[in-house]
Design goal:
By secondary structure, the protein is of the alpha/beta class. It is about 35% helix and about 15% strand. It is built from 11 helices and 9 strands. The strands form 2 sheets. The protein has a 6-stranded parallel sheet, sandwiched between helices. The chain is globular and about 60 Å long. About 40% of the residues are buried. Bound molecules: zinc ion (ZN).
Length: about 270
């Protein structure tokens, strides 16, 4: 379905978004760096982004980890003593009204699943539970052998690299590194959710990074619809039935409020 040209966050566009969410059989959402930025977390790419200012990190980070996991962990312990900008921002960031609105949409039965490209854990802090963090979570650890995940904990220099309690494999940060395949379970969960969706909210992301970019495309290909909420136009704007221009922390609470006069439809995945 082509876009209907609602290119701002005016009342009619908010209302149209709410009506579509209420009418959806299975509504999911995809979030990206835009919603984290509103909580003070710097973006990586684009104007003012961390990598724009400091240079891109090595593209073979995972290979470097595999070659010397102990060295990687020692570096991380050093960073904990003197945290870089991104780590400092994540440590102090709090969910913003956009994160809280998404958690409310889930609690009220309108949002069936949330897929985030962000690693900061703010959706969990906000109360979202039906959540797939496609690039991992910075506050978790993951075994590279069996994939078991657990909360981050403190290690001394003698304890690194840590090993998995279940299988003895080497444990790394859960965040997906450059050159590291996204864990199969994360990918499968995302595509299974996209396949069930007749509506996907695409929020704070230009969705140009794969595989996240493929998720709204899959919804469109199967005849579903997209509602976009972003500060700037994106490649998806032309395909969105409603394209709201503005910060998620402003738009989403308005959508939640507009949904006050609706009840969610019973859960029934698109086929
Ligand atoms: Zn393991």
């Amino acid at each position: 379905m082509p876009g209907n040209g609602s290119l701002n966050g005016d009342e009619a566009a908010i209302r149209a978004a709410a009506e579509q969410i209420a009418a959806a059989r299975y509504c999911t959402a995809l979030t990206g760096a835009g919603i984290s930025k509103e909580s003070g977390i710097p973006t990586f790419r684009g104007e003012g982004g961390l990598w724009t200012r400091q240079g891109e990190p090595p593209m073979n980070g995972y290979q470097l980890f595999l070659e010397d996991p102990r060295g990687w962990w020692l570096e991380r312990l050093e960073q904990q003593r003197n945290p870089p900008e991104f780590a400092k921002a994540i440590a102090t960031a709090r969910p913003n009204p956009g994160h809280l609105a998404l958690a409310q949409l889930e609690q009220r039965g309108f949002l069936k699943h949330l897929i985030s490209q962000n690693v900061d854990g703010l959706h969990l802090d906000a109360g979202s539970t039906r959540l797939t963090e496609i690039h991992g979570n910075r506050r978790k650890l993951r075994c590279i052998a069996c994939g078991r995940r657990g909360p981050a904990r403190d290690f001394g220099e003698d304890d690194v690299p840590p090993h998995c309690d279940a299988c003895g494999g080497i444990v790394k940060a859960d965040t997906v590194m450059f050159g590291e395949p996204i864990p199969r379970a994360f990918i499968d969960a995302c595509f299974a959710e996209a396949a069930k969706s007749d509506l996907m909210l695409v929020i704070g992301t230009s969705a140009t990074v794969h595989p996240a970019a493929d998720l709204p495309l899959q919804v469109l290909r199967r005849g579903g619809a997209i509602i976009e909420m972003n500060v700037d136009a994106t490649p998806f704007s032309a395909y969105a039935t409603v394209s709201l221009r503005g910060p998620a922390g402003v738009l989403l609470p308005q959508v939640v409020q507009a949904l006050d006069s609706f009840d969610p439809r019973p859960e029934r995945p698109a086929v």
